Amino acid sequence: MSTIDRTTEPRTSIATDEVALLERYHRDGDLQARTMLIERMMPLVRHIARRYANRGEPLDDLVQVGAVGLIKAVDRFDLERGVKLSTFAAPNIAGEIKRHFRDRGWSIRVPRDIQELNAKLTQATDRLTTKLSRSPTIAELAVAVKATEEEVLDALQGAQSYSTVSFEEPIGENRTALELLGEEDPEFMTAERRVLLSNGMRVLADREQEIMRLRFFEGLTQREIAEQVGISQMHVSRLIRRSLEDMRMQMADVDAAPAPQRRLRAA
Question: What SS3 class is residue 176?
Fold first, then answer.
């Protein structure tokens, strides 16, 4: 196993550089530092993804899913925790991949041998596609997995039970199953969200509330907000990130006072 795939402690110079990048991103809003961190941690993503590669999903797809977990870990990392980014990221990456399997689990129970053959077919398809520079035929897949063509067809058909058909799939006369179901008034959800956001906005100063309104309700870019409010774009980025964190803490705290006093931030 290569050193880059491990989650053990790296050399001091690497750790110091990692901390510097994390500080540049979380304290200064440096997106280039964020990109560098993600790129450096991708070998860890691939290492973890390979553990789940024989479960019926292409390795490239698992790497992409794991990368989402890595990005979330980088964004959620707390510099005050005193742990390495790789230590924090590893369970986040694995958790994201596990959720992928959970969300895409078999909708209809099919025989175990069909599931196992489908997993082999997934690996064989990836391997043969790379080797042949085209999609393999049924006959070629049958030879690769040492099965009959009929068994391969059964397995491929069984794979369709891996996920359900969308309610938006047409079922005749341009109608969908969703149109046949009763629906809730969307305003109920809108009202609930407004109450939740109102509770979260209470902890923000007036300027922060205005910035959040311009960004998420008016749809202005950070540059447009900076010009309108009269501060730098980087300052806008930091205020948005800090405000979102304050709002999350407020909305998660069920014991918070109903109308806490606003905290005024220093510019």
Answer: strand
Burial of 150 (0-12, 13-18, 19+ CB in 10 A): exposed
Q: What is the pLDDT of residues 116-152, one digit of tens each?
A: 787 788 888 888 888 888 888 989 999 999 989 888 8
Residue ending a domain, among 66, 83, 103, is 103
Domain count, the chain: 3
The reply to whether 41 and 71 lie within a common domain is yes
> Comparing C-alpha atoms, which of 209, 232, 231, 212 is closest to residue 220?
212
pTM (predicted TM-score): 0.39
Q: What was the pLDDT predicted at 179?
A: 61
- Determine whether 164 is exposed, middle or buried from the number of CB atoms within 10 Å of its CB (0-12, 13-18, 19+): exposed
Domain membership of residue 73 as a residue range = 3-103
Q: In terms of domains, do 91 and 10 share one? A: yes
CATH of residue 217's domain is 1.10.10.10
Q: What is the 3-state secondary structure (H, E, C) of 41-98?
A: HHHHHHHHHHCCCCCCCCHHHHHHHHHHHHHHHHHHCCHHHCCCHHHHHHHHHHHHHH
pLDDT in tens, 157-180: 766 555 555 556 666 566 665 565
Angle, in degrees to the nearest 10, between helices 149-158 and 112-132: 100
Q: Which residues of 71-99 are buried (b: 16+ CB within 10 A; e: fewer)?
A: bebbeebeeeeeebbbebbbebbbebbee
Angle formed by the axes of helices 112-132 and 138-145, nearest 10°:
110
